[in-house]
Q: What sequence folds into this?
DNA sequence: CGACACTTTGAAGACGATCAACGCCGGTGG
DNA sequence: CCACCGGCGTTGATCGTCTTCAAAGTGTCG
């Protein structure tokens, strides 16, 4: 509809790194803006895979439903992230999960063939896609390891730490961007367990009251989480967090 | 060393699908054969990422070590699979895990730049890589979900089922291809738990005695595993297994 | 034969899921 | 305006599962 409403923010996405402005223009003008209100489904498990999406604003929940009716949230995606590349590149016919808007969201929608052709035609884009998906694969394998070896408290602390980095929150004080029920589903635990766990985190350097979180002792948290996180030095979230807490400490000091 | 020792088996790997014979020749002749005896490390966590590998024969264990000394096996790779593409494409400087030969293995070794250049130059290869890595990302996320929601018995049953498909074993009777200790590490559980669990699987259609396994009631197993496996119809292993058990039943019947 | 790695089995304990009850809040409707 | 409701979160009690610790059995290889 609108010819060029969302230029720079989208063009600067990592997916398009290494492409000329000209190439970005050409590619992006095939995108269709799609608005998705809070609670509205983008697609369902089993639907055929028809589009690739860039998230312009808002947040999208990816989840699956077990036969016993429970939902497991796989990931919550936010502005600047992409959606669908994995299933498209794996040449799935039908979606393997559900996608629903958690808050009012705006997406840029492209056809499957757009992505496949673009990956063939522009090798930087193919490499960017590879990098994105490789990163996802790695994080997913770390996730599996965490699920296997970390306690509920460590899972929650790790989650809060990474949440803080991803959303660029001030660790000293921020509000949870979505409900505790959703967080519990994301972490694969029951809401009761999450509730009890949050209370216990005071001993580990994190205070949670209602939806207000303060990671008041980031160093202790990092030790607590990374103590069982075998990726230690490699985990982008942890190193980011250390830098960040350093940064905030610096700002406070000066 | 040897000019063309391992031709067709390697050329028919999915990674090279869509390339001409000429192109495959050109690419493959840059590979160096590397032999790796049982127990020998291919690389360690922290080593710089220098090569990409095709596994010609044998099997390679990927694992990480927690600070408390325990090893978590991420995956066991076998002939026909590749190694290193993930870390290369994610542009890691150093390895995020250890790789060790479980049995005497033969690999074909390529430089990092070989892979990156090939992905840029040959778009089918880039797409094949994308497909491989996207599949890994998906399986890893399913793994995380399994770790969160499945019982030890379900994890083991699921593992045996997939093992059977991957190695093209006859479900009616096969030997475990590696130790129970390794399997426990792969499944993120203690060896004691695995030992106890294997005994209990009799009720679910699987008999295990020593290292001999018989999935005598594949249908029941599939129901048992998929009952909590939310990917149900999508899981390649499960559908494969159903086909396979159908196949074996057919062979028996005729 | 003895060393050692691998596996099994038993008993105790920790942790998280489950069931149940209740408090809190925002919205709807009388 | 107040009563009722439903979604969300908290708290308590109980139960099942997996880990942990300990001991002993099995196998292979020098």
A:
């Amino acid at each position: 509809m609108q010819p060029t409403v969302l230029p720079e923010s989208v063009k600067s996405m990592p997916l398009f790194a290494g492409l000329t402005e000209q190439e970005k223009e050409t590619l992006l003008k095939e995108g269709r803006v799609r608005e998705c209100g809070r609670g509205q489904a983008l697609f369902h498990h089993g639907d055929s895979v028809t589009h690739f999406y860039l998230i312009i604003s808002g947040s999208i929940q990816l989840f699956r439903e077990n036969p016993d009716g429970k939902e497991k949230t796989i990931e919550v995606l936010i502005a600047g992230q992409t959606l669908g590349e994995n299933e498209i590149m794996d040449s799935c016919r039908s979606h393997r999960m559900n996608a629903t808007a958690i808050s009012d969201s705006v997406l840029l929608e492209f056809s499957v063939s757009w992505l496949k052709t673009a990956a063939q035609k522009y090798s930087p884009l193919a490499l960017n896609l590879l990098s994105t998906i490789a990163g996802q694969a790695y994080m997913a394998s770390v996730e599996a390891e965490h699920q296997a070896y970390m306690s509920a408290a460590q899972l929650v602390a790790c989650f809060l730490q990474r949440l803080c980095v991803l959303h660029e929150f001030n660790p000293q004080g921020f509000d949870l961007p979505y409900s505790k029920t959703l967080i519990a589903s994301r972490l694969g635990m029951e809401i009761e367990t999450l509730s009890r766990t949050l209370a216990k985190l005071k001993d580990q350097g994190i205070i949670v009251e209602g939806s207000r979180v303060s990671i008041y002792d980031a160093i202790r948290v990092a030790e607590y989480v990374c103590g069982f996180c075998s990726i230690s030095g490699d985990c982008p979230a942890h190193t980011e967090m250390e830098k960040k807490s350093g940064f905030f400490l610096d700002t406070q000091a000066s």
Remarks:
- The beta strands of chain B are 32-36, 41-43, 51-65, 71-78, 82-83, 98-111, 174-175, 206-209, 212-215.
- Residues 151-152, 189-190, 192-193, 196 of chain B lie near DNA strand D (CB under 10 Å from a C1').
